[in-house]
Design a protein that fits this description.
With about 140 residues, the chain is α+β, with helices and mostly antiparallel strands. It is about 15% helix and about 35% strand. A hairpin with a 6-residue loop joins strand 5 and strand 6. The radius of gyration is 20 Å and the shape is globular. The N and C termini lie far apart (about 80 Å). The N terminus is likely disordered.
């Protein structure tokens, strides 16, 4: 009895194609983890832009009181664009960005700031993380 290898080959090809599509949809690029929600989507209210000049990989978080959300991992000389988690956007909500070099025991954080819909927060991580400046660009059309 002869077995036809075609169905097995076809199955293997389909598995490879689906794997390639899945990795291109949800994979990572440049050592960064994907953002919780894509920037520019209808749900995007405010954006964090973090650029790294620090030589080591850094884990990034956003904190709001007891809430701490992991934004991703940033490697040297890369930039991460990520939507501000919706629970952290709005009047009276104060946010800090937090960076922790991989393997370190100490965090470095920005000053606290209020983020509203349409704002952009830029943070450049320098070689000395303690002196890394953060700036908030307000949506002027909102008139805050």
């Amino acid at each position: 009895m002869r077995v036809n290898p075609t169905p097995t080959l076809a199955t293997a090809v389909l598995v490879c194609l689906f794997s390639a599509c899945a990795s291109s949809q949800g994979g990572t690029s440049g050592g960064m983890t994907p953002p919780p929600t894509a920037v520019g989507s209808p749900a995007a209210e405010a954006v964090f832009v973090v650029a790294s000049q620090h030589p080591d990989p850094v884990s990034l978080y956003a904190t709001n009181g007891a809430l701490r959300v992991r934004l991703g991992t940033l490697t040297a000389w890369r930039t991460l664009h990520v939507q501000v988690p919706p629970l952290m956007v709005g009047r009276g909500r104060v946010v800090r960005l937090v960076a922790r070099p991989i393997g370190a025991r100490r965090d470095v954080a920005t000053e606290a700031f209020a983020v509203e819909r349409g704002d952009q927060v830029f943070w450049t991580l320098t070689r000395r993380l303690e002196s890394s400046p953060a700036t908030l660009h307000v949506d002027l059309a909102r008139g805050r």
